[in-house]
Amino acid sequence: MSKVFFLFFLSFGLCGKMAWSQEILPVREAVDIALENNYNIRLAKNTQRIAKENNTYGTAGILPTVTGNLTQNNSIQNSNQIQNNGLERALDNARNNNLTYGVNIGWTVFDGLGMFARLDRLQELEKQGDLEMKRAVLTTVGDVITLYYTIVEQQNMLSALDSNIHISNERLRTAQNRFSIGKAAKLEVLNVQVNLNEDVSMRLRQAETVKNLKTSLNGLLARELDIDFSVDTLVTIDGALVYADLLDQADRFNPDLQLIVLNKRLAELDLKNIKAARYPVIRLNTGYNFSQSESSLGFVAQSNSRGFNYGVTAAVNIFDGFNQRRNERIAKIQIDNAGLLIEQQRLLVQTNLRTAYETYLTNLELVKLEEKNEDIARQNLNITLAKYTIGSISAVEFRDAQENFIAALSRFNTAQLQAKLSEVQLKELIGQIDI
């Protein structure tokens, strides 16, 4: 009996040794790599930086503009002139040069407060970039954790199949021994061999699944696809989540809801900017310019001038075909739509949170149930293996116990995975994923 238990637990020990022989990639390290390398996050970072760069007084139109100007015109002409006194003058290849250069300053000092509305909008757009970045991080972290624990589930199944193969090999050895001493028919040996081949085939498929999942995770981490690693098979599930707390946090921190609330604020600023067009635009202008001209034929052969120029420009929209009123009505409708979208998104978040929480509670109960079933199936397999070794049960009965154990282990792994994914989904909905 002790030999049976030794062989059974040795098989798990061998599988554990194979798993730990590779470099362990903890889930936190996988998340850190994704935060640094993932393309979606890097793109979101660049978008965030663009919004931050645009949030300036100059972009809003509050600061003055300074321009340097230089204009030079040259001409070569054949000229004929008849003056008022009847004198005729002619010159071939007459050269005329005109050079003007200087600095001009323009400053819009009033535009119906539209410039301040634009500044507020740029600030809100920077906040939008921060929220988009947060959403990209949450989505990527959720994807990494989901894929990581999917690998954990499939790796555990691979280890179980390795153990199953060890047990089937022991069955085959026992069947061959029994056949050699005349206590079993050749048919029993063949059936056990078929079962072993079936187990090896399942193991090959499972190994392919694990390898493909690891490739997918490497792709999500934006690193070399052929990097091999092992995962930490310990699954820790947060079983203390409270619905009321989750609901409050989702209303305050859910990134999708925050973005829609921000969109309403942007719509209100757009209306403010549109209303600014009802007021006059006042612009101050000044500059210092130099001018020089030369003429081969004319009353003035050469002239130079320099000096300041200054003035004010004012413009007001008197009539634009009722477009101002139309634009304002449309902006108000967009504000109403933004309010409706907020209520719609809040209801959607609450609905998703409620269903995810119910699934979470169910999965927690399933983990407890399947853990008990897995323990019962393990005990049953040990007892069946002992009985099969001494020849008190048939190979078919032992195979049933073996398959029941693998099925129970598979359900337990699946229950753990689904519970962990439910936890991750809830924390993603409230905008706060911790590891």
Automatic annotation (TrEMBL):
- Signal peptide feature range: none
What GO MF annotations does this protein's record show? efflux transmembrane transporter activity; porin activity
**What's in the keyword line of the UniProt record?**
Cell outer membrane, Membrane, Transmembrane, Transmembrane beta strand, Transport
Q: Where in the cell is it found?
A: Cell outer membrane
Q: What is its main location?
A: membrane
Q: Write down the InterPro entries for this protein, in alphabetical order.
A: OMP_efflux, TolC-like
- Indicate the segments annotated as coiled coil, or none if absent: none
Q: Does the keyword Transmembrane apply?
A: yes
A cellular component annotation (GO) from this entry: efflux pump complex
Q: Which Pfam families match?
A: OEP
The entry's family comment says: Belongs to the outer membrane factor (OMF) (TC 1.B.17) family.
- The protein's name is Outer membrane efflux protein
